[in-house]
Design brief:
alpha/beta; Rossmann fold; 4-stranded parallel β-sheet; 34% helix
């Protein structure tokens, strides 16, 4: 059965009344299921990046808002020059509502409609909109069996359907299980643990493609950089990165 937008709204309201849910942040009622585990008021307070955000053009690190609009595409943090990915973007900062959305996604393979809209909007902006194929950061097979699903793949699948771009979940593979040892490590430590952790198994599917690499959180960039390095070595033309959230650490100096 195909529901109209109005019917979906009514169905959502009925579900909310029948099975009320408290907001994970303020404990007030979540008005509609499309907001996930956070209410609309808390979403309005979330730090969501806008299209004209002042960020490092390459890695997406937030910068001072006072930079003139005509110069924002020239902003660089100078910390990411050696990173193999072409450009990285995130929906917003890893705090508040987005933090809770990421935690929810780690527990269940579901992307709330409102969160999906935010991700799609981010993917449609330059330069990510030049992508020709979507690829999730893979989990190691042991981790995948333990969790039961790959949260990055949930985001990637939603994007593939909405943007009508091919989804590639087979070319990039994780050959080293390192996640559980990374908590508390600094940037160098994280990079050391993921060095050589990824390999490309189907180079013909990667060659000359502009890949949109998808993950849930960009912390130090170690994981997506390791993936991008493997993809570029396998012949990818470019690797764009999109994450649901970016760790709220550091800012471009004024």
């Amino acid at each position: 059965m195909i529901l109209t937008n109005g019917a979906r709204f009514l169905y959502d309201c009925v579900l909310t009344l029948t099975y009320p849910q408290a907001c994970a942040l303020c404990a007030r009622s979540v008005e509609q299921r499309k907001f996930g585990v956070v209410c609309e008021a808390c979403w309005q307070q979330a730090r969501i990046f806008a299209a004209d955000e002042t960020i490092c053009w390459k890695c997406g690190l937030p910068g001072p808002a006072e930079i003139a609009l005509e110069f924002r595409d020239q902003v660089r943090c100078l910390r990411c020059d050696s990173e193999p990915f072409t450009a990285a973007r995130a929906v917003g900062l890893y705090e508040g509502a987005l933090h809770e959305a990421v935690l929810m996604l780690k527990r269940q393979p579901h992307l709330p409609a409102y969160v999906e809209e935010l991700v799609v909007a981010a993917a449609m902006r330059q330069p990510l909109n030049a992508s020709t194929v979507i690829m999730p950061v893979p989990l190691h097979p042991k981790r995948l069996r333990s969790r039961g699903f790959n949260q990055a793949a949930v985001i990637a699948e939603a994007l593939s359907k909405r943007l009508r771009l091919p989804l590639d979940e087979v070319s990039l593979a994780r050959v080293s299980a390192t996640d559980k040892y990374r908590a508390g490590l600094d940037a160098k430590g994280r990079r050391d643990t993921v060095a050589g952790a990824f390999t490309v198994r189907h180079t013909k599917l990667v060659a000359a493609e502009d890949i949109l690499l998808v993950d849930d959180v960009f912390t130090t960039g170690a994981t997506v950089s390791a993936c991008a390095e493997a993809l570029i070595e396998a012949g990818a033309r470019s690797v764009y990165v999109l994450t649901l959230a970016r760790a709220a650490k550091g800012q471009i100096a004024t």
